[in-house]
Structure formats: C-alpha cells, structure tokens
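Might I ask for a little of your time on a matter of protein folding? Here, with my thanks, is the record as I have it:
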Amino acid sequence: MVQYKLNYFDLRGRGEAIRILFKIAKVPFEDNRIAAEQWPAYKDETPFGQIPVLEVDGQKLTHSTAILRYLGGQFGLTGKTPIENALIDALADHLQDFQNEPDYKQWVYTVIGRVEGDAPALFKEKVRPLLAQYAGLYEKFLVEHGRQSLALGDNLTWLDVFAAETFTKFAEYGESDILEAFPHIEALIQRVNSIPEVRAYLSERPKVAF
C-alpha cells in the first residue's frame, strides 16, 4: 500500500484541496502540519523551498497543482479525454493566476496576521475587483460547459475540488454574500461539500486562520 505524507502549514491555504481529495478517495494519509517556528528548519528539506510537499513512499512532490493533478490521476478524478484534461489544466492555471496576484497575497497575509493591515478594507478595495474578474470568467465557463455545476458536466474532477475550496474562502474570510453574483460557483461549492466524505470532514475540521 502506498504511503502518503502531506507536509503543509496548519492552514487551509494551498493544502486543503489536497486533504479533501484524500477524503473523497477514502485513502489514508499522514497530515503533517508544520508550525511557523518549524518552517525555517524544514524549508531546506523541500525540493524548491516551499510547501505543500507530498511524500509518496518517500518521493517528494511539490507545487499544489502538480500534487492535485497527480492525485486526481491516482484516484480517478480526471477528465475522460486529452481535451478535457487540457481544459482542467487551463482552469487550474486560471485559479493559480488568481492566487498569485499581489493584492490577493497581501489580503491573505493580513488575514493570517503575517503583516499588519485592515483585512476587510483590503478585501473591499483590492480583492473584490479581482474576484469579479477571475470568478466572472470561471462562472462563464461553467455556464457554457458545465451541466451539473461541475466543470465537465457530471464528472467530478480534482479541479472541482480545487475550485470549490478556492472560492469558498472568499465568503468565509471576506464577505459572506460575495459569491451570490456567481450562482454556478455557489452550486459547485454546494455540490462538492455535499459529498458524504467531504461533509463529514468539514463537520470536524479545526478552524484555522485561512
């Protein structure tokens, strides 16, 4: 049996979608949560000086989307054709572009207390316009291609889990009604969170800074 160990901070951040994939697949894994004071010592052990890092029988994989893509393949949560997988990759890159926006990062760092600032004001002034742009395009794709709120119709993929976790944080840590303008994204989140294994995990998940 393959041994999995996920190394990430005690945050949802870029590691939570990975945790949720394991829950959906009912595959056990070690959830190694690294405290802030442990990070400098652990950093030198990572392939590229960043986390998450997933160890697969000791082999270290890094970059969250690469890990999600790998697990999607292992767990049967991919597209059915090369074109579908290319669409999944394109949408995942779209979400990563969003998360790499400087204003988004500034808001996240403020929420978790890494830097000082007014998180609600940053959200209103900087993040809301970004959300309108990125979520608007994702919503457009779901309208044109999704039939059951998922990106590829009724076929759940790792991308759907990634997208649901990405967008839900804007309502949980930003403004509770912010996603009302994107009903297909709201339906996506509800669809993913209604999976029995996900629902059970969310009911017992510890509350963290982000």
About this structure: The mean pLDDT is 95. Residues 23 and 201 are 7 Å apart (CA to CA). The first helix runs from residue 16 to 25. The beta strands are 4-9, 30-34, 53-56, 59-62.
